[in-house]
Design brief:
Largest sheet: 2 strands, antiparallel
Number of helices: 5
Number of strands: 4
Structural class: alpha+beta
Helix content: 40-55%
Distance between the termini: 46 Å
Shape: elongated
């Protein structure tokens, strides 16, 4: 018991209703939390153009790359490169075929 007290401190122990409650913090983080933190880090490191494309595609779900290029003022080739980078970072995914598919932001 004294080892636990030394390791976790007084805040790990509470006494209520005649019962001793011990709260031991876990040494690992859940995968969902890690993924969310990593996604936020990736988003913070995007270039301005990548952010514009990502934001436009997030708010305009059924848009093709030419529409994205027109809306952001970038070339079609530039948008394609940005989409490729966003896919590498795990922020963008292609659902369906090249002709009839759609882009999905994560």
């Amino acid at each position: 018991m004294s080892e636990n007290f030394d390791k976790y401190g007084r805040s790990a122990f509470s006494f209520a209703d005649g019962m001793l409650k011990v709260t031991i913090p876990l040494e690992f983080e859940r995968e969902e939390i890690i993924n969310r933190v990593n996604k936020e880090k990736v988003k913070n490191n995007l270039t301005d153009n990548q952010k514009h494309v990502y934001e436009y595609m997030s708010s305009n779900i059924v848009s093709n790359l030419q529409e994205v290029a027109d809306a952001t003022g970038l070339s079609l080739g530039g948008v394609k490169k940005i989409c490729s980078k966003l896919q590498e970072h795990g922020l963008l995914e292609r659902k369906g075929s090249k002709r009839d598919g759609m882009w999905v932001t994560k």
